[in-house]
Design goal:
The complex is a heterodimer of chains A (134) and B (83). Chain A is of the alpha+beta class and 134 residues long. Chain A contains four helices and six strands, in the order E-H-E-H-E-E-E-E-H-H. Chain A starts with a strand and ends in a 7-residue tail after the last helix. Chain B has a domain of 39 residues. Chain B has no helices and four strands. At the A-B interface, strand 1, helix 1, strand 2, helix 2 and strand 4 of A face strand 1, strand 2, strand 3 and strand 4 of B. Strand 1 of chain A pairs parallel with strand 4 of chain B.
């Protein structure tokens, strides 16, 4: 899996931010590419460019090996993301892609999956309970 | 061959549409090129952007060059901001 971070800052700003600040949070600085979208043209296509402020708001996209967007999440600027939830979703999408099964609410690796088909209609309650979402 | 130098201004393709570039000296047509918006279940709109790649310096990066891998694309408001 490759992470690509993108903002409207220049690549020069990315470099210095990583060197002077992020490297104090993550040893050695962040290891993934930081992309520049000056002008917000890419953010516009992804629906995250905020014209009044000239920035891209927090948008997160999970893109599969075929280049298809499997998930998107967009937040206004003052609330940060939850990395654990992103990883959970990524593992669920990888599992679904590998097995053709479906993952119920709150699924984690190792938990039961659903096998959609005529036999499961009206009987999900037998194999899945709300407390399994925790 | 001389090592390629970075400069203050470096063009990158931005959003990429499957349309041939207009010939040199010919002004592009006035109509806006309609670009598909990002949606789940649809192909991610391709782009090319300048980037800072830790350990490798500055490079242009194209989304479509990551085919075959899972990609987590994260937009954020700005370097040196608070959240």
């Amino acid at each position: 899996m490759e992470v690509l971070a993108m903002s409207t800052d220049s690549r020069f700003s990315h470099k210095i931010w990583n060197e002077v600040e992020l490297s104090k949070m993550v040893e050695g600085g962040i290891p993934f590419p930081m992309l520049s979208d000056q002008g917000g043209r890419i953010g516009t296509v992804y629906g995250v460019y905020e014209e009044a402020a000239g920035v891209n708001i927090r948008g997160r996209f999970i893109i599969d090996p075929d280049g298809v967007i499997q998930a998107m999440e967009v937040l206004t600027p003052s609330v940060g993301r939850h990395v654990g939830e992103t990883i959970r979703q990524l593992k669920a999408f990888q599992h679904v892609r590998a097995t053709g099964e479906a993952t119920p609410s709150g699924w984690q690796p190792g938990k039961p999956t659903l096998k959609p088909g005529p036999d499961l209609v009206g009987r999900v309650w037998e194999v899945w309970k709300p407390e399994m979402a925790d | 061959m001389a090592k390629e130098m970075d400069s203050c201004v470096k063009p990158a393709g931005g959003p990429l549409v499957a349309k041939p570039a207009p010939a040199e000296g010919v002004s592009p047509p006035k109509e806006e090129v309609k670009m598909a918006m990002a949606r789940v279940g649809k192909e991610a709109p391709d782009f090319e952007a300048t980037a800072c790649v830790p350990g490798e310096g500055f490079k242009n990066i194209k989304l479509s060059s990551y085919r075959g891998q899972w990609v987590l694309l994260c937009f954020y408001p700005g370097d040196f901001t608070f959240v």
